[in-house]
Design goal:
The complex is a heterodimer. Chain A has eight helices and 13 strands. In chain A, the strands form five sheets. A five-stranded mixed β-sheet of chain A has the order 8-1-13-9-12. Chain A has a two-stranded antiparallel ribbon with strand order 2-3. By secondary structure, chain B is mainly alpha-helical. Chain B has one domain: Formate dehydrogenase/DMSO reductase fold (Up-down Bundle), CATH 1.20.1630.10. Chain B contains eleven helices and two strands. Chain B is globular. Chain B starts with 13 loop residues before the first helix and ends with a helix. The chains are: A alpha+beta, B mainly alpha.
Chain lengths: 301, 328
């Protein structure tokens, strides 16, 4: 881990879904509007992230080039919403963004050096160096980074690099009214997270665990469709500088339970290519060598 | 089951299908040129035929590689930015020891340099083809290089790397199908070699070079067999990952029909079955180690070659669009 790495601890147990973080992010970074009053039935608009979901308080749907922060609304109410019985129903909220992975797939595949690790351990994009090849988009296992059709470059959360350089916290954390988002040194945040999980468990909220680092916690989900399922802390892709306290399985929050770096395929794929090339070379040579044709006249067809 | 956590990088488009197809054909054609020159028996009449067909095929790789460059630049939308992938931008935050850009973790950087170096070999092959046609005279270096075994062997290595590159690149992503296997580099190089031999089949047939056509027919059979084995392993690999239905059964984007008819039917089975049934070029043994062409259906080998090329085009489509099929 980068020495003195900065990051964020996202405590979903206190998120109210107010979207102040989403607004602060848009405002500080002067991000152009991506969504508009277009229904999800317009498939082209959905693909281009210009549509409101319209079926939830979650209007932007997912992270994209225009929404670097996204508050997820997970409604565990059951299929029949007309019934007045809300036993076991719950809403989970989570403010999501780039995780600024310790081993970042996007950064590793970038062919121009536009994506780079900052002095704060975060992953930033130099817009003037990016060529818009979109390799980072395909490489990110979390679906965070996206191509911006208006600029021809990619965008994602840059952990408010300009604010950090001035000794300030991120705009989203600054705006969060419930301290669901806390900015700080990752080491300090991990200690804070461990304390928070222990406190929740002591109150009987045994669902709580950490996604991003293994701090040794484990528990049991207390409500929702996965009730009684076991959960435990998980370190993913070498650790996340922006990590989460979750209350249900990662998949419920649209987070992969076992994300992997695309680079895991590099050496095996190159090896298979090498072996295949060797086999093709040998068979090709054999095909031509085998035909030691006589110079005798050829029989007529 | 599709991977719901990733964003598709908009690589699944016809421009890139064409780019990968064209690059593969160029690389495979150079492989044929190298094989024909390296393996031919210079004491036989067939050597003249081989070299004549190889020289004709020499017209193919360079224009196709120029087309590859054009497509890539057009796909990026902003031509000058392409330079950032070759020369380290003065604005790049992290400095390296060289002014050239090279990130060893990025298959795209490897591929860029491989393609650039391969372009040199393609250029020499093109000049040699002009020399044979007596369009281009002088520069004996070109003639010396284009038949030099070391030059040809090194060129063949770069041709194979060019063929494999985009498969490795797709493997090193988190995308559906592409990132679920590590066999795409092997598959890509096999189909690239197959498409090059298909071009050779058309050129040999049109040139009426029966002895060379016999060798090309042999090579087509073996390359189709290697590609078939790799394709089978690939399907098994995807089945283990739980994604095989996206490839074999998707009808929305016609991935499944293109796979069964184009890839399996045209690219693999067509040359295999043609060979098993005697093939357009029939050979007979004339001694313990010698063969002679006993019969030749003029035109049929070219048809097989064209069919294989169509199949390889379907392969490029299927592999690129299977990732998109997964999320529709």
């Amino acid at each position: 881990m980068t020495e003195n790495a900065r990051g964020m601890f996202v405590d979903t147990s206190v998120c109210t879904g107010c979207k102040a973080c989403q607004v602060a992010c848009k405002q500080w970074n002067e991000i152009e509007p991506g969504a508009g009053p277009i229904p999800m039935t317009d498939e082209k608009a959905v693909v281009e992230h210009r549509a409101f979901t319209g079926d939830s308080y979650d209007n932007t749907g997912h992270l994209n080039a225009y929404d670097w922060r996204h508050v997820k609304f997970i409604e565990q109410i059951g299929p029949d919403r007309s019934t007045s019985d809300r036993t076991g129903a719950r809403w989970l909220m989570m403010s999501d963004s780039c995780k600024h992975c310790e081993q970042a797939g996007c950064l590793e595949v970038c062919p121009t050096g536009a994506l780079y690790r900052t002095q704060f351990g975060s992953v930033d994009i130099h817009q003037d160096v990016c060529i818009g090849c979109r390799y980072c988009v395909g490489a990110c296992p979390f679906g965070v980074i996206e191509f911006n059709k208006n600029t021809g470059r990619v965008n994602k959360c840059i952990l408010c690099q300009d604010r950090l350089e001035q000794g300030m916290s991120t705009a989203c954390a600054k705006a969060c009214p419930t301290s669901s988002l806390t900015y700080g040194k990752v080491d300090d945040l991990k200690r804070m997270a461990a304390d928070r999980v222990r406190a929740l468990h002591a109150r009987g909220q045994t669902d709580a665990y950490i996604y991003g680092w293994d701090l040794g916690n484990s528990g049991t989900i207390t409500a929702g469709p996965n009730k009684n399922a076991a959960v435990k802390d998980m370190e993913v892709v070498g650790g996340l500088n922006v990590f989460y306290l979750l209350m249900d399985k990662p998949e419920v929050y649209s987070l992969p339970s076992a994300p992997s770096l695309p680079q895991r395929n590099f050496a095996p794929s190159a090896g298979v290519s090498l072996i295949s090339a060797a086999v093709l070379g040998v068979t090709g040579l054999a095909a031509f060598r085998r035909r030691r044709m006589t110079d005798a006249a050829v029989t007529a067809d | 089951m599709p991977n719901p956590y990733v964003i598709e990088p908009h690589w699944a488009n016809w421009m890139l299908v064409l780019e990968m197809f064209v690059a593969g054909v160029a690389a495979g054609t150079f492989l044929f040129i190298a094989l024909a020159n390296l393996a031919t028996d210079r004491s036989k009449v067939s050597a003249t035929e081989d070299q004549d067909v190889a020289a004709r095929a020499g017209f193919v790789p360079l224009p196709l590689m120029l087309l590859v460059g054009l497509i890539l630049v057009v796909d990026l939308g902003q031509p000058l930015r392409f330079l950032n992938i070759v020369v380290r931008s003065p604005l790049a935050p992290e400095r390296g020891p060289l002014p050239l850009m090279f990130n060893s973790n990025s298959p795209m950087n490897w591929g860029t340099w491989v393609i650039i170096v391969f372009g040199l070999f393609a250029t020499v092959a093109f000049l040699d083809a002009l020399w044979h046609r007596r369009v281009f005279r002088g520069v004996s270096l070109v003639e010396a290089l284009s038949h030099n075994p070391i030059w040809l062997a090194v060129g063949a290595i770069f041709a194979l790397a060019t063929g494999a590159y985009s498969g490795v690149l797709l493997n090193v992503t988190s995308q559906n199908v592409w990132g679920d296997t590590f066999l795409m580099g092997g598959l890509y190089v096999a189909f690239s070699a197959l498409s090059g031999m298909a071009v050779a089949a058309i050129v040999a047939d049109r040139a009426g070079a029966r002895r060379t056509a016999a060798a090309v027919q042999n090579a087509l059979f073996w390359f189709a067999a290697v590609a078939g084995v790799l394709l089978l392993l690939f399907v098994v690999n995807l089945a283990v990952a739980g994604r095989v239905t996206l490839l074999l059964a998707d009808l929305d984007l016609l991935v499944a029909p293109a796979f069964w008819i184009g890839v399996v039917g045209l690219a693999i089975l067509y040359p295999l079955v043609t060979y098993w049934r005697g093939g357009p070029v029939r050979v007979k043994r004339t001694g313990s180690t010698t063969l002679a062409v006993a019969g030749y259906d003029l035109g049929r080998l070219a048809i097989v070659g064209a069919g294989v090329l169509l199949g390889v085009l379907a392969f490029r489509y299927v592999l690129l669009f299977s990732a998109l099929a997964a999320v529709t």
